[in-house]
Amino acid sequence: MASAMLRRNIMAMVGATISLLGFRTARAANAREATTSLIGTWKMVNATSRDPDGKALARPYGPKGMGLVTLNAEGRMMAVLCDGRAELPDGVRRDYASYCGNYTFDGTTLVTKVDASSTSRIAMGSDQVRKVRFEGNRLVLTPPPAEINGVLQHRDIFWERISTEPA
Question: Is the model's pLDDT at 110 over the cut of 50?
Answer without folding.
Answer: yes
